């Protein structure tokens, strides 16, 4: 016997999915911001290494 979804079941599934999305979306922005901070820290470290290398090669 083939049983189709009724409207109530579809509404319940939609509500569950939207609730999960509301919970997870703010977390994804926090993760994105954390990634940006990691990139900035890495860039600063690379600039420091480059300056140290330049200074040592030019006897400063």
Count of beta strands = 0
Order of helices and strands: H
Query: Helix content range of the residues, please?
Result: over 70%
Uncertain segments: none
Short description:
This protein is an all-alpha fold. 85% of the residues lie in helices and 0% in strands.
Question: What do you see in this structure?
Answer:
- By secondary structure, the chain is mainly alpha-helical.
- The protein contains 1 helix and no strands.
- The longest helix has 51 residues, at 7-57.
- The chain is rod-shaped.
Give the SSE map.
Layout: H1 7-57
Characteristic terms for this protein:
60 residues; mainly alpha; 85% helix
